[in-house]
Amino acid sequence: MKIMMYAHDGSLNRGCEAIVRSSTSIIKEQIQGARVFLASGKPTTDKIITNLDGIYDGSAVSIKKYSYDWLLSSVKFKLFNDETYAFGRIHNKIIKHIDNMDVCLSIGGDNYCYGEQPGWYEINRRVRTQGKKLVLWGCSIGPEDLSPRKLEDLKSFDLILARESLTYELLVSCGLTNVKLCADAAFTMEKEELPLPAGWKEGKMIGLNFSPLVWKRSQNSQTAIRDLISHILQTTDLVIALTPHVIEADNDDSEILKNYYEEFKSTGRVILLPNDLNAMQYKGYIARMRFFIGARTHATIAAYSNAVPTMVLGYSVKSKGIARDIFGEEKLVLGIEDIANSSKLIAKADEMFREEEAIKTHLEQTIPQIKRMSYKAVEYLNELVQ
Q: Which of 66, 103, 274, 368 qualifies as a FRET site for 135, CA 20 to 30 Å off?
């Protein structure tokens, strides 16, 4: 069976890398003879993922003004409100591989959280037109993300795999009958342990991940995080490991974390992890931390999956849903407004410190079940293609 993953924009987002790595591994582990290919918007960044059977350039192609394609696209849109030809040309690098596949997996876990996606809708339509199986793999979607057009697209999938229960319940409540509940495949990803950096103190490390994405949505959050760092340094003996997890241009965690490092490095209790590690290597460091505070979902998944007590600087349904599935409540997840409030941020961190043992014990008990839910996605996929 040949499977193509698409709707992936490269592995400079280590969370996207983690999805591809782990999904490929569990699919090949459970489905005999499965071959997995990746269509990527930035294919050179994915060469670090060695278990794939092939990587295709799936980047979008612009339509040159006044070209034949531009003229035909314009006529079709103006006369018939038809975008299909235009998006077919724009995404032809993905579409041309569909005929050679058995199953197409749309793997952008939260692509559907960012408005209408007519390009993806057109790729999905082409998959169905060519009679291939169409699967939305490990998605998160909130009520504010849905629209009539998006719901029509979601109905066209043979299978939708929701990675947490909030998304699952929402889609079922909308009348979709093609939805199954699983967990994010990244819970199963292996870790790679590198030598510990200078300044690391075993048993006294707290990871901190912060992102430009959160900062742009909540300008005051940058000050609140600074206050949180000061609080940790003043009231505990912990060493803070500033941990980037996305290193894309204009969305680079390390740029904002460098500022905190420069401000607090004189304390001798703040280190900055490199911004060129792969997802398994970041997971290797996070697994050896005592606590973790993170804005990037897959950085927090790396912590959860190693039973590290974790506070989530959540900004979407995925953070809330994952926490609820682990704890039965949205435990230690702060909304975008709370992240900007120093008092609330500090109070939640103190709660995590007080409940350290109980949280760790709970994670040790529940994460094996969450990992089994990750494998359920492959079971449902296998059932679909039998």
A: 368
